[in-house]
# Entry
Amino acid sequence: QVQLQESGPGLVKPSETLSLTCTVSGGSMSDYYWSWIRQTPGKGLEWIGYVHTSGRSNSNPSLRSRVTMSVNPSKSQISLRLGSVTAADTAVYYCARVTNAISAPGTWFDPWGQGTLVTVSS
Amino acid sequence: DIQMTQSPSSLSASVGDRVTITCRASQNINIYLNWYQQKSGKAPKLLIYGASSLESGVPSRFSGSGSETDFTLTINSLQPDDFATYFCQQSYSTPFTFGPGTKVDIK
# Structure
């Protein structure tokens, strides 16, 4: 089955750019949307955005000015860049596949990566 | 943005109990509602999609119901493996949003 694994620096300095990669294994990336979600004790789960293998993307307006997402199907990877970070961006960052089905409306996140903790601190 | 609320924020229950968690949306989201289970230190796991469709491999003691703004996750005969935090999430419109979670612990 499809598995996702996030990777990247665990510590980022304030005002710098957070860069994460999600590697997909066990299945094709094609024709799916791939999402980034983060979790903090204070704000809970927050959807950051999604990107399609075609390059189409959408992001949370609250983060849009700082977010860049991309897909590299040849490497089975999805990337997230979040610029001008502050302590408020300290969180566990997850990647997840956006899934849907004929049997039900809407979309859902499944599966998820294990998550990676990113701390913003000098 | 669509705001999601959940009640209760936490509950204590015993093995074998029936547990009900409520999720409310700030506007009509039809049945574009999903439920996830998260255990400590782990990623959320999909339980229910489309308000009432059980994800493959999820035990049948889990069920979901509701539409428009009010939704329920029910766990029949709570098992030791079910002690976790449960989140609802709407996919009606972006930005997708999650409820704050309901923590189920052992009485």
